[in-house]
Amino acid sequence: MKKYFLLLLSISFLFSCVPSKDLIYLQGKPIQKKEIKRINDIPYKLQVDDMLNIDIKSSDEEMVSIFKKQTMGNYSGRSSGSNSGGNSGGNSGQNFGSGSGYFSDYSIDSYGNIRMPTLGEINVLGYTTVEVRKKIENELNRYLKNKEDIFVSVKLSGIKYTIIGEIADPGPKVIFQNKVSVIDAIANSGDITIVGNRKKVEIIRNSISGTEKFTIDLTNINAFNSDVFYIKPNDIINIVPLKQKSWGTGTTGLQTFTTIISVFTLLTSTFVLARNL
To answer: From its phi and psi, is residue 248 left (phi > 0), alpha (psi between -120 and 50) or beta?
Structure first.
C-alpha cells in the first residue's frame, strides 16, 4: 500500500503542479535584428460603437461653439471634451460605464455615422482618425471664413477591450492611452491567475473583413515582435486555463500534497471499515 501511495504521490507532483517557467513573463533573450521592424503600425480603422473625442478650437470660441456638442457633463459639473479621461490616470475599472465621456464624445452608430451640431451626420466607418479630422475640417471650411484659425483634434476615447477567462478581474475595460499592449491590458485587470495559460493567450478581433483569432506566448521575450502585442479597440482577450485546473489536484506542491493525503486517508478509512464489516 505504501509503495502505491508513493508512486501516486510522485505522479501527482510531476503532472499537477504548475512549473515556475509557465508563470514568468517574457523569458529569454530578445533576438537581435539588424533591420528595424515597424510593429502594429497600421492605422486603426473605425468601427461601429467606437467612441470618438472631437475637439474644435479657435481664437473665437463663440464662433466655433455652434459646432460643439453641449453635454450633460457641463450640467453636472464634470469636465467635457478631451478632459473626460484626464483624471483616470490610465486605469479603467472605476471609469468604465461611469459616463465620464459618454455624453461628451461621439458614438459611431450602426450605419457608421456620427452626428455633430450644425454639420449633421458624417460617415466615419472604416476611416482612420486622421481621415476623420480632415473630413471635419473640410466640412467646417464651408461655414468659416478664416480657415487658418481653426484647430481640430480627433482621437479615440481610450482603448476599450474585454478580458475573460483565468484573470483576476474579468470584464470590459478602457485604458486612456493611444497605444495599449496585451501586457498593459492584463496588468490593468489584476494579472492572470496561477492556472491561466500564459503561453497561449488568445486575442479575438472583429474587423470590417471579419473575425480573427490570434495567440501569443507571453512567457517569451520575443512576444514584443508579435503583430498582436499591441491590442486594438474592442479586442477580446481570452485567458485559457491550464490542464492542471481540470485535473483539480492543486496548483502548488503543497496543494497537491494536501489533496493526495486527503484522498489516501479516505481510501484507507474505507478499506479499514470494509474489512471490519
So the answer is: left
Q: Cα–Cα distance between 235 and 27 in angstroms, integer? A: 25
pTM for the model: 0.70
Characterize the bridge pairing of strands 159-165 and 171-175.
antiparallel
The burial class, CB within 10 Å (0-12 / 13-18 / 19+), for 222 is middle
Which grid cell is 210?
471579419
Opening angle at CA 50, ends 86 and 122, nearest 5:
105
Q: Which residues pair with 106 in a beta bridge?
A: 52
Q: Which residue has the cell 494579472?
A: 191
State mean pLDDT over 97-124: 85
Return the bridge partners of 107, or none. 51
SS3 readout for the chain: CHHHHHHHHHHHHHHHCCCHHHCCCCECCCCCCCCCCCCCCCCCCCCCCCEEEEEEEECCHHHHHHHCCCCHHHHHCCCCHHHCCCCCCCCCCCCCCCCCCCCCCEECCCCCEEEECCCEEEECCCCCHHHHHHHHHHHHCCCCCCHHHEEEEEEECCEEEEEEECECCCEEEEECCCCCEHHHHHHCCCCECCCEEEEEEEEEEEECCEEEEEEECCCEHHHHHCCCCECCCCEEEEEEECHHHHHCCCCCHHHHHHHHHHHHHHHHHHHHHHHHC
What are 233-262's pLDDT values in tens digits? 999 999 999 987 665 555 555 555 566 666
